[in-house]
Fold this sequence. Notes:
Blueprint: E1 3-6, E2 11-13, H1 16-23, H2 26-31, E3 41-42, E4 49-50, H3 53-69, H4 75-102, E5 106-109, H5 112-122, H6 129-134, H7 139-147, H8 150-163, E6 173-177, E7 182-186, E8 192-196, H9 199-209, H10 226-249, H11 252-262
Antiparallel strand pairs: 1-2, 1-5, 3-4, 6-7, 7-8
Helix pairs in contact: 7-8, 8-11, 9-10
Amino acid sequence: xxxxxxxxxxxxxxxxxxxxxxxxxxxxxxxxxxxxxxxxxxxxxxxxxxxxxxxxxxxxxxxxxxxxxxxxxxxxxxxxxxxxxxxxxxxxxxxxxxxxxxxxxxxxxxxxxxxxxxxxxxxxxxxxxxxxxxxxxxxxxxxxxxxxxxxxxxxxxxxxxxxxxxxxxxxxxxxxxxxxxxxxxxxxxxxxxxxxxxxxxxxxxxxxxxxxxxxxxxxxxxxxxxxxxxxxxxxxxxxxxxxxxxxxxxxxxxxxxxxxxxxxxx
Length: 266
């Protein structure tokens, strides 16, 4: 399945017509600074202008209806007006096609079955997600996870262990379909396993990282006063809740952060 995506607008679709329509939207034009490149549909009889072809055509129909009621306009003038509008529409369509083709925000993903076949036949990593998860947490990882928001901390852990500096041959997490969040992970049985939205993988990461926050804190009067002790407990509770939200309740933000690192680059 072919997917058209706009990175700057975080827009994805499998329909080319929808993508071309998105390229004309105000959001896309603003994000890509196309104001100077993309001219508007302008009506020479009034001050109306728009970036949408369908709206412009509806506006032109109003002028056509006015011709039927206003006999001051000659038929020859009206015919020339129609021809001029048709030429402008054709010119505008050509500009749109050129912008879509030249846009550097376009990303077309290959058919997911082809990607899966490539993974199975060509990628045989020397490690797997289970062996990486079994390694103890380093002091750097613990310090970063506890000092930053849950989303950043979890992404740091996943990127550092499973994604960073891995070539195609060493990838152990691969995305086959960005639109459907279809992933495969390399398990300890040396086989690739389907994991939709990385539910299984996130569960294992959650079990690993939750140990940072699940620990007994004893109140020591020589070390803490009540306020400092309660602040430390609250920070630990907030960290645990953030971890739960990032990996279980709303993992979509984390998926968006890691999908670019899990795509196979042929």
